[in-house]
Amino acid sequence: MKEIKLVSLVGSFAENKDIARDIRLTKIIPTIEKNQGVILNFEKIEGATQSFMHALISDVIRKYGAEVLDKIVFKNCNETVRKIIDIVAEYMQES
Amino acid sequence: MKVYLPNSAFLGNIDPFLRKIDLSNPDTLEITANKKWISIHPVVLAMVAAIGLGVKPSRIKCEKLEAKSRHYLQRMGLFKVIGIKSNMVIVEHEPAGRFIPLTRITNSQELTRCITEMIPLLHLEPRQADSIKYVVSELVRNVLEHAQSEKGAMVAAQYYKKSNTIRIGIVDIGVGVKKTINNAYPAKTHLEAIQLALTPGVTGTTQRIGGTEYNAGAGLFFIKSIAQINREFFMIYSGNAMYKLLKSSSKKKHITLHGDPFLERHSKGEDYPFWRGTVVGVDISLSRTAEFAELLDLIRKVYIETIQERKKERYRKPRFI
Lengths: 95, 321
Fold this sequence. Notes:
The complex is a heterodimer of chains A (95) and B (321).
Chain A: E1 2-5, H1 7-10, E2 13-14, H2 17-33, E3 38-41, E4 47-48, H3 50-64, E5 72-75, H4 79-94
Parallel strand pairs in A: 1-3, 2-4, 3-5
Helix pairs in contact in A: 2-3, 3-4
Chain B: E1 2-5, H1 15-20, E2 29-33, H2 42-53, E3 60-62, H3 71-75, H4 78-82, E4 99-105, H5 108-122, H6 126-147, E5 153-160, E6 165-172, H7 176-181, H8 190-197, H9 219-229, E7 234-239, E8 241-245, E9 266-269, E10 275-285, H10 292-313
Parallel strand pairs in B: 1-2, 2-3
Antiparallel strand pairs in B: 4-5, 5-6, 6-10, 7-8, 7-10, 8-9
């Protein structure tokens, strides 16, 4: 599993969608393409916006289907971050 | 253009101020004010600053302000932003704990800096800061991504001790909500476009449910919901239309969120002076701030239900003969 420590890339409040997109395109998708798992480590991230999370994972779910969530692990998420991830994962599977 | 700063203009009573703005002759700006007292929401200041930015300073005329509270305009940076001299001499105190002066944000880096700096400026506890950071980030990103505003977004915020609220204004002179929504939906009026923009899952970038890889159409719905759960005001004004979420009674134990903003307790109109761009004002109570995580549970439920309903609307129906 490839671990991506997000705080050094996005700061303690994850809101920058451009960075989220870069992480998805340059780190998450290439790893999934290699059929490897990804650990997204949210340690020291205090909050996140829905827009950030959407830019980070929505297209991965759309492209590879909900099964891709078996290959992604969200680590060290506080309650807020966890709920934002839940919202995005849920509406992407509903759509 | 002519702007009269009244003795009071907050989201609850902002309508007369909006109706009185004269946005004709965009090459000139005349600012007048109540002689005794000026007490205005940061969104009002952000509006004046946003239109002032498009006018040469030599063509801005500001009458000599007499109101006792006139220094507030200076402290919030209005004259500096629009490039005119106020002739007021004041001793500037540290802004910490009270307000975020008028700040122009034109790119992602400036937004990140603003969000990082705003929390110590407003002296917020981390628990209270979540919703404020959330609101500013999502609203300003909307401007940067969709508004095509040459001058970016104008942001201001103020803490009000008496009501223990943070009041935020975010304004742009861009293309407005209707033009953005019309990229994907045929909204005929500015009010219809605002209604769509506040509906979960509607984005101007695509009709596809779930949005694009970059936009989900959730930002404004989340922000309206944050204000609503905190029983505070939220206002959006674009083109000739204004929608205002009204405060819900504190006697009501539970807040019910709806996907359709017109089902909420609100006021609206489509006979306002034409605002080229978008104005958003939002109040957030620090006393009643629900835990952000709890708030997300409510938002999630309504968001998913609305998406499911929208999906059902597209189902093909069997034909019976």
